[in-house]
Amino acid sequence: MEQQKLPKVFVTVTAEFDPEGRLTPLSFVWEDGHRYEIDRVLDTRRAASLKAGGMGLRYTCRVRGIQTYLFLEEGRWFMERKRA
């Protein structure tokens, strides 16, 4: 069985800078047009997307009680597509 890489899903993100210059994502729009509010950012670090490829800032977020990753790579936001 051949393992396929899950592609990146580029998303529109609403984010804000705090007075110290930290960037915090607040919500994102998935490819179907649905907007999801980010309940909480749990962690931010430089990391690679092992599923979709790429390297950048990885935001570990809680959305509707589910942990997910949001990546900022070269000025573009993306997420990993889940398996169907």
Description:
The protein has strands spanning 8-10, 12-17, 23-29, 35-37, 40-48, 55-63, 66-73, 76-80. The chain has one domain (13-80). The strands form 2 sheets. The protein has a 5-stranded antiparallel sheet, with no helix packed on it. A 3-stranded antiparallel sheet has the order 2-3-4, with no helix packed on it. By secondary structure, it is mainly beta. The radius of gyration is 13 Å and the shape is globular. The two termini are 16 Å apart.
Short descriptors:
5-stranded antiparallel beta sheet, 84 residues, mainly beta, 3-stranded antiparallel beta sheet
Number of strands: 8
Gyration radius from CA atoms, angstroms:
13 Å
For this structure, the quaternary state is: single chain
Q: What is the molecular shape?
A: globular
* Sheet of most strands: 5 strands, antiparallel
Helix-and-strand structural type: mainly beta
Q: State the low-pLDDT regions, or none.
A: none
Distance between the termini: 16 Å
Helix content: under 10%
How many domains make up the coordinates? 1
Compressed to H and E, one letter per element, the order equals EEEEEEEE
| DSSP summary: helix tally | 0
Q: Work out the strand percent.
A: over 45%
Strands of the largest sheet, in order across it?
A: 1-8-7-6-5
Topology:
Blueprint: E1 8-10, E2 12-17, E3 23-29, E4 35-37, E5 40-48, E6 55-63, E7 66-73, E8 76-80
Antiparallel strand pairs: 1-8, 2-3, 3-4, 5-6, 6-7, 7-8
TL;DR?
This protein is mainly β and 84 residues long. It has strands at 8-10, 12-17, 23-29, 35-37, 40-48, 55-63, 66-73, 76-80. The protein is globular, with a radius of gyration of 13 Å.
